[in-house]
Amino acid sequence: MRDFTEGSILKQLVYFTVPMLLANLLQAMYSVVDAIWVGRLIGHQAFAAVSTTVPMIFLLVSAIIGLAMATNILVGHAFGSKNMKYLSKVLTNSFISTGFLCIFISALGIIFSKPLLSLLNTPDEIKPMSNIFLTVTLSGLIFTFMYNWFSGVLRGLGDAKTPLYLLIVSTTLNIIIVPILIIGPGPIPKMGVAGSALGTIISNAIMIVVSYFLVLRKHALLNVRQWDFAIDWDIIKKIFTIGIPISLQMIVISLAGVLMVSLVNGFGTLVTAAYGIGMQLDNLAFMPVMAIGISVSSMVAQNLGALKFDRVKSIMKLSFVLSFFCAVFFFTLIYGFPRFIASIFTKEPAVIMLTVQYTRIVSFSYFLFSGIVILQGVVRGSGDTTIMLIFSIITMIFVRFFLAYALSKYTSLNEIGLWLAIPSSAFIGLLLHYWYYRSGRWKKRIGPRH
After folding, report:
1. Which residues lie below 8 Å from residue 244, measured CB to CB, with a gap of 6+?
2. pLDDT of res. 28
3. pLDDT of 217
4. Residue 261: how many CB atoms within 10 A of its CB?
5. CA-CA-CA-CA torsion for 95, 58, 69, 376, nearest 10 degrees?
6. Which regions in the chain score pLDDT beneath 50?
7. Are 277 and 360 in contact (CB under 8 A)?
C-alpha cells in the first residue's frame, strides 16, 4: 500500500503514472498481437470476423470497467480516511455486485450473440466465425472483470506496479498460447478463431490465480477467507452511482467516434485513411496524459478521504504542468514533422497531404485535452462522475458532431470543417470542466469517514 496523503506529490505522480503508462501500452499491444496472429495464421476473413466483434465487446465490457473505477475511488476514500472497516465492506460488496453483473452480461451476450452481430451488419460470410469468437470471449468475461477489479482496488490503495506485473504475465502467456490453439500442433486440436479467444481466456485465468497469491502477500485485506460477506446496499448503490456514468461516458465517446467516422467516410477513402492515421497519432499523444489523469483520480480520492483539500489543489496544479509538457512534446513532434510521420503509414501522396492538413489543425487540441483530463481526474476522484457524462454528451455529440456536420456540409471547408470541430469541441470541454472545478460542487461527493 502507498499513502498518497503524505510525502512528495511529484514523486508519487511519477511512481504512479509510469506503471499506468506501461500498462496502457501493454493493453494496446494485447489486441494488436491477437490481431496479428489471427490475420497471419488464419486469413483476412478471420481477421474481419474478429474485428467486427470489437465494438460490441467494448460496449459490454464498459459497464465492468466503470464499476472497477468506482471501486478504485471508494477504496481511495476509505484508505485515505484510514477507515479499514469501511474499506473491507467496499471490497466485499464491490466484488459481489460487479461479479454478478459480469455473469449477467456474459449470459445475455451469449444468448443474444447472433442478433447483436446482425445489429452490427456483420457480413454473412464471416458471421459464423464472428459468433464463435464473441461467445467464447464472453464466456471468459469473468476473468476480465477480476483483473479490472483487482487493478481498481490496488490503485485505490496506491499500488500501480502490481497491476502492471499482472498484465505482463497475461500478455506473455497470450503471445505463447494463442498461436498454439489457433494452429493446433501435435495432439492439440486446431481451433481457429475460437483458439484466439480461448487462448486469451486461459492467459487471463492463469494471471488471476497468480495475482491472488501475489497480491495476498502484499495486501492482507484481499484475503477472501477473512472477508465479511454481509451485503451493504448503501455501498452497492454508491458503486453503481459512480460507476454507471463512467461506463455511459465511455459509450458516448465510442458513439461519437462512430458518428465522426460516418461523416469522414462521406469524403472518400483518401480522407478516411488520413483520419485513421490522425487518430493513431492522437491516441499516442493522449496516452501519457490519460495515465496521469488516472493517477490523479487515485491520489485525489485518498486525499479527499483524509479531507486534505490543499493537497488536492497541489496535485491538480503539478499534474497539470506534467500533462502540459506532454502536450508540448507531442505537439512539437506531430505538428513539426507531419509529412515524415504520415509517410511511415502510407506512400500515397494524397493521403500524406490530407494527414498533414489534419495534424496542423487537430494537434492544437493536445493542449486543451491535457487540461480536460486533469480536471476530470480531480472531479472523478471525488466520486462525482455524472457531470463528466453530461459534459461528454455536450462536447462530443452536440458540439463536435453537429459542428463537424454543419462546417463540412454547409460551407466550402469540406473535410477541413471536420478537423476544425475537434479543437473547437475540446475548447468548450475545457471551459465546462474548469467552471465545474471552480464551483467546488464535486467536494460534496466525498465518501463517509465513519
Report:
1. 63, 66, 67
2. 67
3. 65
4. 14
5. -170
6. 448-450
7. no
